[in-house]
Inverse folding.
């Protein structure tokens, strides 16, 4: 009976969490137009631009370095095996397809989840425990529109942009490896890459990164809004935001990769 | 008598098995300053959160200007909230914004006033609470008393008809607290606001209030004028006024000490 209760309770909490994410996703989507320039409320777009700088521009060095390192590692690991079969040129295919389809969006999601997902949760959690969210509500201002919507718009725009930059850095690292090992020039490398990847590879990667962005911003904000208690609760929410968003990003990645794989077979 | 500005009728709030408010009824008349008194855990803050519409009651109604805030439309609730200012105990100033931005926020978001007009009105609101010079400062740079004043300036930004204070004197020294009391009286006189002050500071309550209400264990045990309150013979009110501690059974504590002495070894 205890096992049943524990499983039932876990399922109940999981469904409530997913329900909360879904409702918040819908509310965030509905409120998003109000932070856009011209169409939105006056000056509100500035908050979205500030968030875009914090989520995108500030994360660029870390995304760049991580992607370059991952690209170089991937090239070295595959190069070591492919060299034995005299097929070193296929390293370029592996790096190109691996990054555009998978590694670029995934590495970006991990960086944004760690940097911004936790920051969203900590910021909103602090606003909850210091009654700032209550103050917004008593001032007839919608916390979803005021707090979540700028983050929502900024994340959905900047994560795909960062994923493109991640692809670029990863591919450049592959170019570096190929130049060191086989003296292939950058121009030749890029021509090879251009012929090797298809538009579909890039589009599927970008679609994934949009989905990852939605997960990160929703989980980060939901964990923040669910914060109850004092400053220690804020820390717990931030940790929880990173853990849950990373977990859900991986699940979403499996789901999308399976879908694209099946579509490719048809 | 005019229709009450705030009307709480048979308000009951229960969390699980724990009943926090037990059928509380209270009317606050237009232009009146009502002090809601009560000890820690008496249900004051819960009652305040229901009056300002942050939580829904288990049963009972809260009416602001005759409109039930738990059954009205979202549009009506927004209109009611625009006529109501709240100064929270923790001030609840937005730490990412300057004091000026905090005060101008409701003006920018909820009115169509031009930016220069918003700036002038913001300065007037800050000057009214004595913070004209601190407009550009961030909340974390202000003292406790200045933060409270900034919170009042923000609460009055839209010239509300109702102003609610949650523990305005909490954590302030007597001189700063007296200054805040003066500010409440000034707002009442100058703008004829209806003011509800939730507090456990007797001196402050007697200074600013026209009437006082007292909560004890989730029930309202008195709603009276200052003089009637002072003369009350109700035991709990007398205890509150005379600052007398609850009697406790000292034999329980002594037994506990004896047990401890048995474990650690009694001396002498």
């Amino acid at each position: 009976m205890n096992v049943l209760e524990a499983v039932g309770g876990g399922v109940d909490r999981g469904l409530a969490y997913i329900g909360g994410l879904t409702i918040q996703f819908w509310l965030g989507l509905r409120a998003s137009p109000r932070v856009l320039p011209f169409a939105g409320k006056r000056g509100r777009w500035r908050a979205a631009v500030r968030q875009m700088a914090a989520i995108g521009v500030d994360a660029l060095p870390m995304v760049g370095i991580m992607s370059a390192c991952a690209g170089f590692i991937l090239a070295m690991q595959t190069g070591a095996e492919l060299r034995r079969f005299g097929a070193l040129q296929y390293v370029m295919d592996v790096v190109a397809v691996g990054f555009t389809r998978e590694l670029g969006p995934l590495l970006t999601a991990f960086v944004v989840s760690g940097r911004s997902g936790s920051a969203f949760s900590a910021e909103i959690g602090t606003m909850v425990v210091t009654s700032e969210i209550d103050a917004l509500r008593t001032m007839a201002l919608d916390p979803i529109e005021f707090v979540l919507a700028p983050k929502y718009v900024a994340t959905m725009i900047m994560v795909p942009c960062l994923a493109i930059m991640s692809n670029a850095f990863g591919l450049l690292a592959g170019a570096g490896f190929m130049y060191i090992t086989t003296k292939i020039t950058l121009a030749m490398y890029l021509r090879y890459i251009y012929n090797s990847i298809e538009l579909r590879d890039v589009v599927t990667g970008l679609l994934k990164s949009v989905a990852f962005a939605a997960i990160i911003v929703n989980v980060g904000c939901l964990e923040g809004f669910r914060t109850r208690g004092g400053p220690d609760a804020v820390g717990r929410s931030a940790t929880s935001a990173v853990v849950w968003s990373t977990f859900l990003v991986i699940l979403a990645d499996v789901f999308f990769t399976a879908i694209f794989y099946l579509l490719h077979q048809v | 008598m005019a229709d009450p500005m705030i009307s709480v009728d048979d308000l009951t709030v229960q969390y699980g098995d724990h009943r926090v408010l037990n059928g509380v009824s209270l009317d606050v008349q237009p232009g009146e300053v009502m002090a809601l008194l009560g000890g820690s855990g008496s249900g004051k803050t819960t009652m305040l959160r229901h009056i300002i519409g942050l939580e829904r009651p288990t049963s009972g109604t809260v009416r602001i200007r005759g409109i039930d805030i738990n059954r009205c439309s979202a549009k009506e609730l927004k209109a009611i909230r625009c006529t109501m200012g709240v100064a929270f105990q923790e001030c609840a100033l937005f730490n990412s914004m300057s004091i000026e931005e905090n005060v101008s926020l409701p003006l920018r978001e909820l009115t169509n006033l031009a930016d220069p007009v918003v700036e002038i009105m913001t300065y007037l609101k800050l000057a009214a609470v004595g913070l004209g010079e601190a407009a550009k400062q961030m909340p974390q740079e202000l003292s406790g008393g200045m933060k409270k004043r900034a919170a009042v300036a923000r609460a009055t930004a839209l010239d509300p008809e109702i102003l609610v204070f949650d523990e305005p004197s909490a954590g302030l020294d007597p001189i700063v607290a007296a200054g805040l009391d003066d500010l409440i009286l000034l707002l009442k006189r100058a703008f004829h606001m209806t003011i509800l002050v939730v507090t456990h500071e007797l001196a402050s309550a007697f200074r600013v209030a026209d009437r006082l209400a007292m909560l004890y264990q989730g029930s309202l045990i008195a709603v009276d004028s200052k003089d009637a309150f002072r003369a009350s013979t109700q035991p709990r009110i007398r205890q509150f006024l005379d600052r007398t501690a609850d009697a406790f059974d000292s034999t329980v504590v002594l037994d506990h000490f004896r047990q401890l002495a048995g474990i650690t070894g009694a001396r002498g």
Summary: The first strand of chain B starts at residue 6 and ends at 15. The CA atoms of residues 85 and 155 of chain B lie 4 Å apart.
